[in-house]
Amino acid sequence: MDAAGTSSFVKFHWKPVLGGHSLIWDEAVKLRGKDADFHRRDFWEAIDQGHYPEWEFGVQIVADPDKHLFGFDLLDATKLIPESLVRCN
User: Fold this and answer.
1) DSSP letter assigned to residue 45
2) pLDDT tier at 3, thresholds 50, 70, 90
3) How far apart are CA 31 and CA 42, in angstroms?
4) Do 86 and 61 meet the contact criterion of CB atoms below 8 Å apart?
5) Chain segment 6-56, per-residue pLDDT in tens
6) How far apart are CA 8 and CA 19, in angstroms?
7) Maximum Cα–Cα distance for the chain, whole Å?
8) Do residues 58 and 11 make contact, with C-beta atoms less than 8 angstroms apart?
9) Residues of 12-36 as b/e, b for ≥16 C-beta within 10 angstroms?
10) Cα separation of 55 and 16, whole Å?
11) What is the per-residue pLDDT for 57?
12) CA distance from start to end of the chain
């Protein structure tokens, strides 16, 4: 709530600086069968080489009267507000 008594919905985001990286399902299944610790080891090896993980912190703010303009519940943690609708500052 701000000084004027207006409430807003605030959603926090942590975005990896290197962006998102993933495997397709078939690759993940094969890799898991060969080396179950691949991701954990890759993470620690990167840190050992000085490539530390970094994230950018962002905030999306939706005014209380606008909370019903979306096709989903803003309190649903599994839903993301598209940045085309609400910019992440």
Assistant:
1) H
2) confident
3) 13
4) yes
5) 888 888 888 889 887 788 899 888 888 888 888 899 899 999 999 999 999
6) 28
7) 59
8) no
9) eeeeeeeeeeeeeeeeeeeeeeeee
10) 4
11) 92
12) 18
- How is residue 6 written in tokens? 């207006």
pLDDT at 85: 81
Distance CA 62, CA 30 (A): 42
Residues 6+ apart with CB under 8 A from 1: 7, 8
Amino acid 13: pLDDT = 85
For the record, the structure tokens of 72 come out as: 């989903």
Task: Taking the CA atoms of 63, 71, 23 and 34 in sequence, report the sign of the dihedral they define.
Answer: positive
**Residue count of the chain:** 89
Q: Measuring CA to CA, how many Å separate 38 from each of 23, 26, 43? A: 12, 15, 9
Secondary structure of residue 10 in the 3-state scheme = strand
Q: For residue 55, report the phi and psi dihedrals to the nearest 5 degrees.
A: -130, 150
